[in-house]
Design brief:
The chain is α+β, with helices and mostly antiparallel strands. It has 9 helices and 12 strands. The strands form 2 sheets. Strands 1, 2, 3, 4, 5, 6, 7 and 12 form an 8-stranded mixed beta sheet that branches. A 4-stranded antiparallel beta sheet has the order 9-10-8-11.
């Protein structure tokens, strides 16, 4: 049996920045989606998704007709063919995973990355992680006109810890942080695309207003002036977004020189305050989970993903079990996680 596995991810710094073409720091985690597959002699695709209690099937030659929004199994076939890959071999596959679903840890991107790599391997191609990431962005985001950026596909495909320039798509590997994190799943549902689109519109509206005050203004350049004639919310959003950008750069320098647990935790907490108080993305339950984890000995943490629900994480190399217990006492699930490698192919 052939297996392709891909990790979930946490966004350490730069949440809600990649769709603004600002840099991010993300890390893959050791919870993964696994596609176990065998090749077929026909062009039929059979998929068993036991975690979701779903069965799916389609013929490769019917892939252009989408059955529903985000029909990723078909979109990956179409994107690969558009890019010149000869995708003609059918598959029987089982899709398993232990990444919390719809919780901000990129379970859908890990699935798409795994599926793109599966199609490549099954049809005789060797793949590179960055190539798979680019194809997954097209299959998941561009094919359906979705609001997200490229962080999820790149961080899950490449693995470890990366600093991602979302304009050039240049990736810098960062030293992997030693010690454990704790991921907390609030169990609160979230509407990823709606949250992303709403926050993106709010920020871009503020940017547009700022450009009327100074046509050279841009989020990549620090030309913001608090005396500009803008609405209070526009000032608030611009200051927060620029600070979010600067936190990411500050964190990168610290990670590349001398890692400090307390500085790392402080920067995580500061970014969470932006996501919570300015963007309004963190519900009370997640704030309580973070507070409890900090009281139990975590150095810092933040909500993870688009927000509105889903997961949070904390850095807790010390007092880890106490932190787990504190999060669970808030009515959430807690998982001890570490940083992991990217998309991986195994042949039993």
């Amino acid at each position: 049996m052939n297996k392709i596995s891909t990790p979930g991810r946490i966004c350490l710094f730069g949440e809600h920045q990649d769709y603004l073409q600002l840099p991010v720091i993300a890390a893959a985690i050791n919870r993964r989606v696994v596609v176990s597959f065998e090749e077929r002699k026909d062009k039929q695709v059979f998929l068993d998704l036991p975690d979701m209690q779903l069965l799916d099937s389609f013929h490769l030659d019917s892939s252009e007709t989408y059955r529903h929004k985000r029909d990723y199994f078909k979109s990956a076939v179409n994107v690969l063919r558009k890019e010149g890959y000869n995708i003609e071999k059918g598959l029987s596959a089982i899709v398993n995973g232990n990444i919390p679903i719809n919780s901000g840890t990129s379970s859908s991107s890990a699935l798409v990355v795994s599926w793109v790599a599966t199609l490549l391997v099954a049809n005789g191609y060797k793949f590179k992680a960055k190539e798979v990431a680019d194809l997954a962005v097209k299959a998941e985001v561009l094919e359906f006109g979705e609001a997200g950026g490229i962080m999820d596909q790149y961080s899950t495909a490449l693995g470890d810890m990366i600093f991602l320039n979302t304009v050039s798509r240049n990736v810098e590997s960062l030293p992997v942080i030693k010690g454990t994190f704790v991921l907390g799943d609030s169990g609160l549902p979230k509407a990823t695309q709606e949250v992303l689109l709403s926050n993106k519109k709010r920020i871009l509206s503020a940017v547009s207003a700022a450009k009327k005050c100074n046509k050279k203004f841009g989020l990549k350049r620090g030309l913001y002036n608090p005396d500009w004639d803008l609405k209070d919310d526009q000032h608030k959003v611009l200051k927060a977004t620029i600070r979010n950008r600067d936190i990411t750069i500050e964190a990168k320098k610290m990670l590349q020189t001398k890692f400090n647990k307390r500085t790392f935790g402080r920067l995580l907490n500061e970014e969470h305050e932006i996501l919570n108080k300015t963007y309004g993305l963190s519900p009370t339950k997640i704030n309580n989970m973070l507070s409890a984890a900090m009281d139990a000995g975590a150095y810092g943490g933040k909500i993870n993903g688009s927000g509105g629900g889903g997961c949070m994480f904390v850095y807790a190399p010390d007092h880890t079990e106490q932190v787990v217990k504190a999060i669970e006492e808030q009515g959430a699930k807690a998982y001890i996680i570490e940083i992991d490698k990217g998309v991986n192919y195994e042949n039993d």
